[in-house]
Amino acid sequence: MNFERAKSIILIILVGTSIFLTWSIWTYEPEYDLFEQSSEFIKIKSDVQIVSDVIKPVSILFHGNGQHFQTSNPAEMNEMEKEFSQWRFRGIKEVSVNRLQRKFDDFVHEDGSIEIEFSDDIPIALYKTVLNITDKEVPKFSFDRIIIKQKDISGNESAVYFVSYDQGKIYQGMVDSKKLRNFMDSFYRGSYDKHPEYTAETINSKRTLFVPEKPVEINKLEYYIDYLDIGNLKNALFTYPKFVRQEPVSVGEEYTDGTRLMTVNKDNYLISYINPAQKSKLFGSSSDLLQKSINFINDHDGWEDNNYRFAYMSEDEQRVVFRLFVNGYPTFNESGMTEIEQIWGKEEIYSYDRPYFSLDSVLPSEGSPKTLQSGKEVVNQLKSKDNIDFKSVEDISIGYKLNKSLDSKLVTLVTLEPTWYYRIGDKWFIVPFDEDTGGDQSGLE
User: Fold this and answer.
1) I need a surface site. Which of 80, 125, 176, 188 has the fewest CB within 10 A?
2) Nearest Cα to 72, choosing from 370, 396, 394, 329?
3) What CATH number is associated with residue 348?
């Protein structure tokens, strides 16, 4: 074999090897072990909230066989909300109480029905983003409860009712009867085995409230707290943050650009912002007001622990309040440490008050569990007080009273103490069981 022939053979072998390796790379499929994603350890945090995250039911009432049962369990309410958000609603229209041939209060709390209750009136124009409404045009109205009645389920379609308790208004939408039957089978039947019994208490001729028949046992809670980034808030609230001056004050710090003012209260971990130039109001719809209030907090990642819920809105004041909820219960604090309040001006936000902390990790509490009085005892106590107009009471609820403290390592803790509250207008008060003080009458918005 001469040298030239040997080179040719070697070249052919190299070219063949190259072709084989190239083909192997192109066609190679590695074997991976199956990986099951678990939300327990893979969690992507998102601080953007949509309507269904913030506007949620606060309780569910079941009426059956002359008895009443209620739950505020977040898991059950989420499951129920998931169900009715998948229904198709059509033919939404107002129905008069006269046509229903019964008194308004009797209709709302009728035997054989479920009441899904919200904190305040919700504009349907906004909540229709949660519901599947097929109508091209929907009447303008607000509601604070959705009612499903077992006796009204018949034929192919049946009515579901949207009720505004304060306004005495009732609207109905038609839903597939099969879905309603499945819903009642899942949630209504057997509710008396799963939930505590409540008793009806007549407040006045137009209002009945439902309170626990027996004493209620709830755990006292303690949390370490975490903090929001003050810089994010400053950048969101001031048009030109680099021109903002910072100055120390007795309670913490002040930031101003000569017009706007943001105060950081380090005693109570609160932010207070005001823009006097926006004082005159531009009145828009309640739907627009609530949507832009949600968007505003989204814009600066302001929800933090995602436990804030819509609580109250005043269209006249252009005011919206979101409240901290824990385990399905509202929380209260006399300094405002559990509320996000916005008041809107003619073009932008006029005032903005909120805490700048979030609940971090929960600790075992030495004082838990705590047993609260029965609802009947609460009602009797309210009736016995000369300084309380019982007929003006609009709600009675268990809530957490938030107090702050320092532990032995000088780490800030907050304590959530189960407490009975009652509401008149938009203000909440502690039910006064102390005969000497008469209770806290300062009012918590």
Assistant:
1) 176
2) 329
3) 3.30.310.160
Residues 338 and 414 both lie in one domain: no
| Percent of all residues in the chain with a pLDDT value above 70, rounded to a whole number | 83
Domain that holds residue 105: 51-195
Domain boundary among 355, 383, 412: 355
Instruction: Give me the mean pLDDT over the 142-169 stretch.
Output: 95
> Do residues 351 and 366 share a domain?
no
Whether residue 383 sits in one domain with residue 330: no
pLDDT digit string, tens, across residues 283-307: 788 999 999 999 999 988 888 777 9
Say how many domains are in the chain.
Answer: 3
267 in the same domain as 389: no
**Same domain for 187 and 160:** yes
Give the model's pLDDT for residue 37.
Answer: 35
